[in-house]
């Protein structure tokens, strides 16, 4: 079962200064149009090549456009022992509430 996090919960955590790891798995051209401030960009197709950059001791929030690719990233990482959550609705839901932000 993949844990889910709502945009409001993520926004509140970031706003309050909580140390959160956000990984955006969209493609370069999508990220160029805006991403959650502070997020790390690792395209889904490259995720397994960057495992050494992802800390297994903390929880990570996976983000894509609508939630599909981030769900796949969650499945990959969960299978390798990572702690993850999926952003419900992805950047579509985030931008509807908070607009575009850049990292």
Record keyword descriptors for this entry.
33% helix; Oxidized Rhodanese, domain 1; five-stranded parallel sheet; alpha/beta; 103 residues
Descriptive overview:
- This protein has 103 residues and is of the alpha/beta class.
- The protein has one domain: 3-Layer(aba) Sandwich (Oxidized Rhodanese, domain 1).
- Helices cover 33% and strands 18% of the residues.
- It is built from 4 helices and 5 strands.
- The protein has a 5-stranded parallel β-sheet.
Please give the structural blueprint:
Elements (H helix, E strand, L loop, with lengths): L2 E3 L1 H9 L5 E4 L3 H4 L8 E2 L17 E5 L4 H12 L3 E5 L2 H9 L5
Parallel strand pairs: 1-5, 2-3, 2-4, 4-5
Protein name: Rhodanese-like domain-containing protein
InterPro entries: GlpE_sulfurtransferase (IPR050229), Rhodanese-like_dom (IPR001763), Rhodanese-like_dom_sf (IPR036873)
Pfam families: Rhodanese
């Amino acid at each position: 079962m993949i844990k889910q996090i709502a945009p409001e919960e993520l926004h509140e955590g970031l706003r309050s200064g909580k140390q959160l790891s956000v990984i955006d798995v969209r493609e370069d051209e999508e990220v160029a149009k805006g991403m959650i401030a502070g997020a790390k960009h690792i395209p889904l197709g490259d995720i397994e090549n960057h495992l050494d950059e992802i800390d297994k001791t903390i929880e990570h929030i996976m983000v894509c456009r609508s939630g599909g690719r981030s769900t796949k990233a969650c499945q990959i990482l969960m299978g390798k022992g990572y702690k993850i959550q999926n952003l419900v609705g992805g950047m579509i839901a985030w931008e509807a509430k908070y607009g575009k932000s850049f990292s």
